[in-house]
Amino acid sequence: MGIVFGPINSRRFGKSLGIDLSPMGKQCNFDCLYCELEPSKVISRYSDIIAVDTILEELTRVLKEHRDISVVTVTANGEPTLYPHLGELIDGINRVKGRSRSLILSNSSTISDRNIQDILARFDTVKLSLDCATARCLKRLDRAENSIDIEDIKRGIVEFSEKFKNELILEILFVKGINDSDIEISKLNSFLETLDGVTRVDIGSIDRPPAYGVEGIDYQSLREISLKFGSKVPINITSRVYSRNMDSSNYSREDILDTIRKRPLTQEDIDILFNETSKAIFQDMVGSYIDRVSRGSYTFFTIKGGK
Ligand code: SF4
């Protein structure tokens, strides 16, 4: 049935094995415009449910074949937190995964449920999507099932971020003309500024064919958006597809410091933005004017002393 897939090599996590909790077809309480799966009717509970033992047997077998797995990722053709035995499953994964880390990717729809919070707290890394801060945007972009309320989602993320001690990543996917307006960004920013305990916020755009006729935004636009966030949480731009066409530029020493002052950069940003001469100038300043700060599996470059 293809419940366990991979391994795939991820630049960020190393060798990753995926667990698909809905391999028979899409089961989701969202119908996002940008979904890479076919459009479908939203559901509030799984009807096709795989037994925990079946998943763990397959995982154990694959882990024996691949002894160097760095992360086991729980995901689905749909929303994995709707899987009714998730608590039992994560306890089983934690028993068999050895030194690999556990990761779950959720659309945040159930995060206000205390039981779900307790289950997610047993993962090493939790990645929660949050594309919108307003009800209108949630309805338009994520096309959430009717009972899902954006204020519940935000409250749930606050509660979870206060109790979760491991790596918590938020992800915002921007779609042209839908959630890239100044007003939506400002509302997202106001919300992010209330959070403590978030490791980083990934921002990206569509890089696979979407379910509906919507368009992504390019790396340059994502970068401009990133500068509108005054959040204390490091923003990481994840869309690389469009960045391949970008020419790197010449940055003087002052330009480099100004750029980093506006927003901490990752090594990937530096590879995209700076030409070879600028990279050499940048390297000279690491340690004296620029600091390296680790956030989970990412290193950010910031101004030394925060100035
Ligand atoms: S939450 Fe994920 S699986 Fe569900 S519709 Fe959105 S993109 Fe697709």
Gyration radius from CA atoms, angstroms: 20 Å
The largest β sheet comes out as: 8 strands, mixed
Number of domains: 2
Give the cofactors and ligands.
iron/sulfur cluster
Mean pLDDT: 90
**Tally of helical segments:** 10
First-last Cα distance: 54 Å
CATH class of the largest domain: Alpha Beta
The second-level CATH architecture of the largest domain is Alpha-Beta Barrel
Proportion of strand residues: 15-25%
Task: Provide the helix percentage.
Answer: 25-40%
Structural shape: globular
The CATH topology annotation of the largest domain reads as TIM Barrel
Low-confidence stretches: none
Biggest β-sheet: strands ordered side by side in the sheet: 1-2-3-4-5-6-7-8
What sequence of helices (H) and strands (E) makes up the elements? EEHEHEHEHHEHEHEHEHHEE
SS class: alpha/beta
CATH homologous group name of the largest domain: Aldolase class I
Please give a structural write-up:
- The protein folds into two domains: 238 residues, Alpha-Beta Barrel (TIM Barrel), CATH 3.20.20.70; 61 residues, Arc Repressor Mutant, subunit A (Orthogonal Bundle).
- It is 33% helix and 20% strand.
- The chain contains ten helices and eleven strands.
- The strands form two sheets. An eight-stranded mixed β-sheet has the order 1-2-3-4-5-6-7-8.
- The termini are far apart.
- The mean pLDDT is 90.
- Iron/sulfur cluster binds next to loops.
